[in-house]
Design brief:
This is DUF1801 domain-containing protein. This protein has 139 residues and is α+β, with helices and mostly antiparallel strands. Helix content is 38%, strand content 23%. It has one domain: Aspartate Aminotransferase, domain 1. It contains four helices and eight strands, in the order ααββββββαββα.
Length: 139
């Protein structure tokens, strides 16, 4: 079984965010950092070189593959702010249309700038998805 690539590191979250070259994206990343830390109740930790994660869960698939992942997280990528807000039940799908301007995949939400979305809906999504993942993968 190959070793998991994305895992917690001792890299400073502040140093990582301070290095984001685009000022608006850096400012939005700090706002998301504060929002996710307050909403999840977990401190931020760098997962791999580019994901700021909050909390964690351990998964194990039927195939035998297992590992750890953050309950929620984000990364200020070049094209968009990538929010790792995992899928879970129908509530996520009900909240996404209320979020504002974004794109979504199964496990990620992509936003260009924080002002394009309703932060209160984003907070609801984070709370719902973290609770869903904690229930699905209890410690």
């Amino acid at each position: 079984m190959p070793e998991q690539k994305t895992k917690p590191t001792d890299v400073s979250v502040k140093a990582f965010l301070d290095a984001v070259p685009d000022e608006r994206k850096r400012r939005d990343a700090y706002a998301i950092l504060e929002l996710m830390e307050k909403t999840t109740g977990y401190p931020p930790v760098m997962w791999g070189p580019s994901i700021v994660g909050f909390g964690s869960y351990h998964y194990k698939y039927d195939s035998g593959h297992e590992g750890d992942a953050p309950l929620a997280g984000f990364s200020p990528r070049k094209d968009a702010l990538t929010l790792y807000v995992m899928p879970g039940g129908d509530e996520r799908e009900k909240l996404l249309p209320k979020l504002g301007k974004h794109k979504a995949s199964k496990a990620c939400i992509y936003i260009k700038k924080l002002e394009d979305v309703d932060v209160s809906v984003l907070k609801e999504l984070i709370v719902y998805c973290v609770n869903f993942m904690k229930a699905k993968y209890p410690d």
